[in-house]
Amino acid sequence: MKFLYILSILSCFTIANSVLAQGGFDLWVVETSGKAGNFKIFPETAYALTDRPEYDNQPSFINEYQMVFSAADENDNFDIIVYNFNSKKFTNMSRTSDRNENSPMITDCGMYISAVVSEPDKEQRIWLYPLTFEPAELLYDDIEPVGYYDWYDNKAAMFVLGDPNHLIYARGRNDIVMIDSAVARAIKKRPKTSEISYLSTEEFRNLGEEKALMLKSYDIESGERSEYYFGVQGAQDFIWLDKNYLLMASGNNIYKRKYTDSNWELVGTINSETHQNISRMAYSKDLDVLVLAMERK
């Protein structure tokens, strides 16, 4: 098992040719203002960043002006795409025909883009793609199949598929912390804390035909477990705006709340004749934009 160490250098991508990625989902961008409890969106500014019949999804900001996401081509092969908000150009971080890359994000050390890779032998593990565009490196050779993940202290908290599924934290090769076995797909480190947060599929409340899942967290340093009330009805994705405020979406509606509050506040609705059902989101406080994955109608 390979572990990363903190480095102070943050490399940047060199953006080359413009390449649009695919999706039965597309990425939309909406302008925002304010921080934390004053966060607002301006639905009238929303526009489609991608517009293709394939898959563009799983957005994640890697610095002040660049974002990565997973995209499928016409052969249903998934690659990592980088979008530069300054140059308004796309480029491939990966271009592989024998494997699929999903859930790309920047690592803690800032030297790699990590991704869940479905390999030729069908194993599904985390790989690291250097920002220098050198060959990718396998991270945890003995942990698979990984579904979703996030980073704390240069080590990954991973949703590992199985019967049952498990959320684990890889403190070391022989030091695996078992966090939970009833987790939804969103695994998020709470900013400026040592907490890994997630939605529980075991604790929920029924609201009509759809469930609102309990938001839970596990503190890697202290081992303390916390519950932060229920999520939005029917939603499995969330992000942290900062240490205290969360965003979730249902349909075309976006909601926020403080983690200590139980009620969600409607922030705005994205009106579209072509897209619906916001799922994954990515927020840039530097650009004051929110990126949304939306399903094509």
Task: List descriptors.
single chain, about 300 residues, mainly beta, four-stranded antiparallel sheet, 24 strands, about 0% helix, about 55% strand, disordered N terminus
Descriptive overview:
- The chain is mostly beta strands and 297 residues long.
- The chain has no helices and 24 strands.
- The strands form 6 sheets. Strands 2-1-24-23 form a 4-stranded antiparallel β-sheet, with no helix packed on it.
Give the mean pLDDT. Answer: 91
Biggest sheet record: 4 strands, antiparallel
What's the oligomerization state? single chain
Strand order of the largest sheet: 2-1-24-23
Low-pLDDT residue spans:
1-23
Radius of gyration: 18 Å
Give helix % range.
Answer: under 10%
- Global morphology: globular
Q: What is the structural class?
A: mainly beta
* Helix/strand order: EEEEEEEEEEEEEEEEEEEEEEEE
Number of beta-strand segments: 24
Distance between the termini: 43 Å
Tell me what portion of residues adopts beta-strand conformation.
over 45%
Number of helices: 0
